[in-house]
Amino acid sequence: MKIQWTIDKMKCDGCVETIAQALLLVDGLSDVTVDLNSKSVAFTADHQAAVDAARQALQAAGFPARG
């Protein structure tokens, strides 16, 4: 399933790197894209548990997702 969320706290390239690294550690995600201009993240998840884990990983990294 394709997921797209807004990350309001994203402000710089460092934020983009932190968010990307957090999501790359989540099993079941692919095609991770982080866009600073739109303050968004998009990815494909194999199952709902991966979506939940992605949201938790972003929260733990200090970048709560909206959407």
UniProtKB/TrEMBL annotation:
PROSITE patterns: HMA_1, HMA_2
HMA domain segment(s): 1-66
Signal sequence, renumbered to the chain: none
SUPFAM superfamilies: HMA, heavy metal-associated domain (SSF55008)
GO MF annotation terms: metal ion binding
Keyword line: Metal-binding
Official protein name in the record: HMA domain-containing protein
Native source organism of the sequence: Candidatus Ozemobacter sibiricus
Organism ancestry: Bacteria, Candidatus Ozemobacteria, Candidatus Ozemobacterales, Candidatus Ozemobacteraceae, Candidatus Ozemobacter
